[in-house]
Specification:
Elements: H1 2-29, E1 33-39, E2 47-56, E3 61-65, E4 80-87, E5 90-102, E6 107-112, E7 133-138, E8 150-161, H2 174-181, E9 185-189, E10 201-203, E11 210-215, H3 218-223, E12 234-238, H4 240-248
Antiparallel strand pairs: 1-2, 1-4, 2-3, 3-6, 4-5, 5-6, 7-8, 7-10, 8-9, 9-12, 10-11, 11-12
Amino acid sequence: MMNRLGVLVGGWLLAVAALAGLPETVVRVKPAVVAVGTYQRTRAPAAVFRGTGFAVVDGLHLLTNAHVLPEKLAADKGEILAVFFKAEGRDRLRRAEVVAVDRPHDVALLRIGGKPLPTLSLGDSERVREGALYAFTGYPIGMVLGLYPVTHRGIVSSITPIAIPVPRAGFLDPKLLRRLNRPYRVFQLDATAYPGNSGSPLYDPETGAVVGIINKVFVKESKENLLSKPSGISYAIPIRYAERLLRQVGLR
């Protein structure tokens, strides 16, 4: 009994210590976080946010979810892929291009031009444990809140397969079949994320090291295909899949 109490108290103290450092960590993280979307000058609104991304490596490469990217751009009307952020108190826009995409793990790598952004370091997602506290920063409801990134926190409530077997074949679709054939584990979070959070960095509240990428669409299609109404559960893709993508293009 005393041993169990000691473990609980120790875990509580670690969580308190992590939260104590979060305000300083958020200050460091926010400048590296961008909104990802499209821009078309003749459209109203001209800017449309589709998700979140964050700068890594050299400050000119950014990670996000693959599903955040538009399937097709209206290039004939001047629509471009872009990232949006605040710098020196002003709203900024940079044109972005897709460098690489890992669709099975829903990760995409973008590149921008101009002055490098502050970057986030990548942590070790293999060391993430259930019950550990993490934070994520992004643009939860798109353009509604403007270019002001929002931070949430929560514990990793489970490390779980991306797809689970279904009771009847009628529940299967091609995407679920592919994920059942090539399963991998994702982080289930005790925190509320919104569609605009897709692509947000999940990071250590003390160090800011990124261990995952928040995912609000891709994972839920697999995990919650039996539910008539989606749950409020949030998920994150382990950062090791993004590291693999970086290695493939020679950035690691």
